[in-house]
Amino acid sequence: xxxxxxxxxxxxxxxxxxxxxxxxxxxxxxxxxxxxxxxxxxxxxxxxxxxxxxxxxxxxxxxxxxxxxxxxxxxxxxxxxxxxxxxxxxxxxxxxxxxxxxxxxxxxxxxxxxxxxxxxxxxxxxxxxxxxxxxxxxxxxxxxxxxxxxxxxxxxxxxxxxxxxxxxxxxxxxxxxxxxxxxxxxxxxxxxxxxxxxxxxxxxxxxxxxxxxxxxxxxxxxxxxxxxxxxxxxxxxxxxxxxxxxxxxxxxxxxxxxxxxxxxxxxxxxxxxxxxxxxxxxxxxxxxxxxxxxxxxxxxxxxxxxxxxxxxxxxxxxxxxx
Amino acid sequence: xxxxxxxxxxxxxxxxxxxxxxxxxxxxxxxxxxxxxxxxxxxxxxxxxxxxxxxxxxxxxxxxxxxxxxxxxxxxxxxxxxxxxxxxxxxxxxxxxxxxxxxxxxxxxxxxxxxxxxxxxxxxxxxxxxxxxxxxxxxxxxxxxxxxxxxxxxxxxxxxxxxxxxxxxxxxxxxxxxxxxxxxxxxxxxxxxxxxxxxxxxxxxxxxxxxxxxxxxxxxxxxxxxxxxxxxxxxxxxxxxxxxxxxxxxxxxxxxxxxxxxxxxxxxxxxxxxxxxxxxxxxxxxxxxxxxxxxxxxxxxxxxxxxxxxxxxxxxxxxxxx
Lengths: 322, 322
Known about the structure:
Structural class of chain A: alpha+beta
CATH topology of the largest domain in chain A: Aminoglycoside 3'-phosphotransferase, Chain: A, domain 2
Number of domains of chain A: 2
CATH architecture of the largest domain in chain A: Alpha-Beta Complex
Strand content of chain A: 15-25%
Largest interface: A-B, 36 and 36 residues
CATH superfamily of the largest domain in chain A: Aminoglycoside phosphotransferase (APH), C-terminal lobe
Radius of gyration of chain A: 20 Å
Mean pLDDT of chain A: 94
Number of helices of chain A: 9
Shape of chain A: globular
Distance between the termini of chain A: 38 Å
CATH class of the largest domain in chain A: Alpha Beta
Oligomer: homodimer
Largest sheet of chain A: 5 strands, antiparallel
Low-confidence stretches of chain A: none
């Protein structure tokens, strides 16, 4: 939620000269995206987003991310389209950072999504899973089991500062998930970070999906599990069964889950909760107070973890309830 | 440079329903303005800025600020125009804060203004001074001599933490300025904060002046002195005579300064440098590290103060040099 890098109009006009995107009328740093700097541009042609990739993003991944957005947009997913320069490239450089100009999507992300929005999100994520089939590039999930273990190694010594006993809890989870993680479910490209601030709505319908910078190849049902974590819990930590039911039903309208995927949901949701808990915990312990990066409470995801641990059947998420 | 208050699309759509400004398409918190939260809105009609007034702004001053913008816009100054609601009001409320919807001005503020821009700014501030004549409301300058003394009383005990000896320096300045401050120069409404980030340019011309939240009644030449401080010093602290000459010449093209105003410039510039030094010093000492508010180095303005102290004649600023 910050602009890390300021740019001058001289630099920006020089960058725009490589595109056929009109002349610059205004640009404003916007308070969105937690990893990169984003500017909203108005030109004589249209509105655009210029994203400056800060050091958390590996430059080698940019062709995957931007190519995926282009592939998805071509296959009917409403997502930002990277604008090609006149020389055919999509990656530019400004202020010593790689940068991409992408189309601006109208729409608002919902601070308080309702069940009908969760159904739309379910449909949208399933649509994305199907549309991504056939995309030529692939990218392993850096935040899968091995990535969790790496993060945990760095965070473990101080985890009990956040809550006494947390260390023991996480060790047990990692052991369980390492043993039981499913290896034979349908895979494909997943968004991997589909939180409410990454989905725009307009007139009650999804108008756009943004922020593909965690997208990767992994279990499709793991993406659904992340959506349950991201959309179906209330501020007090309770699971909203109505929202979960709606989200799962929306997904299945477009891509029915296989029985093995349904059965794996509690484990996948637990893994997903652990993944977000670990990145939050790591940031919590390592980012100095007052840095521009948002620090979010890892305990919110510890509570989700505890919830998923005690699930006995996927029906408790609302699967198949209509 | 921050968005202090998040708003939901539900609140925002309810607010917009009071206006005839179209339906909401998108809104983004923008990283501009140091006192308030600002959102850039796209509606089916146009682009707008929604400003939420945070607690640093006195709600009782809003009719002055918004009325002034309306008056200036009506008198040919390119500045944002507050949009009236259907009930005729200009002040709304959202997220428990007073808020105003204003028109969006295209244009960019210049990170590295050149002399020709300084001339434009001189012309623009003179035009503003003339256009503001006849505005019915008035507002004393809360950051004039008495205000400086108040700030100093709070900051003085710790001023030497910033630089040893600073306390003694400032005491001497306050005494000199209190004794010699001119009482008989032309007065009127001044912008009082016309830094580069408050002036937009498009195609080499001023396309808009924004942020009237320090505007007040005071000596017109004091506003010119503030522009010298804001536009005509380089990053290394040196005074750029070419920029100063251009700014003063631009001003005088539209409103020639009286001999007494010219003579008073070194004192006014010294007072203005002290004013910005004091607010920075106060923030520096009181705002906790890591707060959202930008803390700027007071020493930058201590160096300006020292520069103005040794000026022997206004010609050293470039006045009358053509």
